[in-house]
Write a sequence for this structure.
């Protein structure tokens, strides 16, 4: 699979991830790694937050930050 953003510019870069927002494949230059906290509430333990990550393309990362 090739990066969608590079493809629209006429280039073909191998994709390293898939955008969680729109499903487009993105190369390392066009991927934005977003970290967020996942909250867990175990029955017998105090709630904890685990850092997780998701991949966004540029347009989706911009839309998220608005
Ligand atoms: Zn790209
Ligand atoms: Zn996207």
């Amino acid at each position: 699979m090739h990066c969608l953003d590079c493809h629209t510019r006429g280039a073909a870069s191998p994709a390293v991830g898939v955008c969680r927002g729109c499903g487009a494949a993105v190369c390392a230059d066009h991927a934005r790694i977003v970290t967020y906290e996942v909250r867990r509430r175990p029955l017998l333990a105090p709630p904890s937050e685990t850092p997780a990550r998701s991949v966004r393309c540029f347009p989706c990362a911009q839309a998220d930050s608005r």
About this structure: The mean pLDDT is 93.
